[in-house]
Predict the structure.
Amino acid sequence: PSTSLGKRRNMNDGTKKDDNMTNNGQEVDDPEFIDLNSPDVVEVEINEADDLEPMEDDDDQDESNILGDNEPNVPDQSSFSIDCHKDSVYAVALNFADNGTNLQVLSGGGDDKAFLTSIKKDGQEKNVFDLSEGSKNPHKDSVSCVAFNTSYVGEKDKKLFALGCFDGTIQIWDLDAGSLLHKLEGPTDVEWVSWHPKGGSVLLAGSTDGTVWMYHALTSKCLQVFCGHEADVTCGDFTMDGKLAVSAGADGTVRVWAPRTGLSKHVFRLGDNTGGGEASYGGQQPATTCMDISPTLVLVGSEDGNAYLCHVGNKKVVAVLQHAKDDSSVMKTGGTDDESMIDTSLRSVEAVGFFKGVGDSQYNWCATGGVDGVLKVWDLGNNGQCRQVCVPSAIVVDPEKEKESPNDAEGFKSGGITKLQWHPNLPLIFTSSTDGVVRLWDARTGSLLQSFTGGNMETINSLDVYFDASKNNNECILATGSDDGVIRLFRIDIGAAVSS
């Protein structure tokens, strides 16, 4: 997962402030002794009635006016909401059980809690299970990542889910029994977890200590510890055939591992357009933020504003997709034509994804989303050419500025993209943003098909979409986890959105 937006702990540096130090750390002199018998001391009479009068606090009044008058009226278009968390929700995952009649929502957050919520398809019955209490081993830090294995198992295989935590533990649960199977230990802070695509019984996990761990979930046995990263391992996954593991880190490297031997097959060093040699991003390799994998390619987003396309077979960086440029020379579509709406100082690429559609939709495309709020679609069959630049219409946060100068960017707030997800067989992309909006884009035209809001402008940290295969994927359930601690579910008619 992309972790650079919001998913971090507040740490105390352990220092104690001296009594003779100011807030900025400067030393002050001790106060001088005052002699009350001195002729310089003057007695002042105080009217007690006047002293009881409350003092006016102009600053508080002004602040409340600022916050109240400019608070936008954002509609809540969600179909259902779950407010079990008391802090930011960092991870959500969806699963349908009981022949599609029972929706299961798995979530983890900054309140050191994880929940499994079951909702009947008609929405009339909801059951919330506190996994931290149910395990009798409560988490001691934020639950950073969650994942079901149900996409990779057969009818007779055991259905599991995993919870990764910043306390360095991973919990493996039996989904059908609702019981904790194993508590895995070893990493420092767990950043992400990913299931093996063949059988869903092997789990890969990345840590802030630079290591990647591989476990057999049913037996709790540690199969491999992959060492080599020199900083946080920010993202990773198995290749689609399950024969290799791939990880990317804050050290600016993408590493390919052999699961059976634990050896490194190759190291891509980003930042120099070739995957090796000297870095060109401020003298350092650019930290990676997110990843997606196709059969032979690995797409990695980084903080330098680029996405790197790495070929696992020939061990080369075959393309560098420049998401954030110093100039904005590319025509923008789908929103506004105002050049000032794009802040080129916001460079980090926070979300990437390949289009993996089948059937008639054989587009060799991928997409990148950044903190600049821009979604870009790239044609990999045409040397990685950018084919669409999608800029959302901004949300008005200052009505007075809009009246005075409709094109003044200071009167607007445009949210950075946190996650993206392609439709399984149509060239459509869902994005979530820091402005609390989910958007549905047509990758062919770059047009914004529909926006979905949840009643506020809190940052959306996590996004998952369940597409209904029984209806040709024309309907879906979309879940978001936000900084306000609420999980929102949206029931979306994709066919209606496209036709409108």
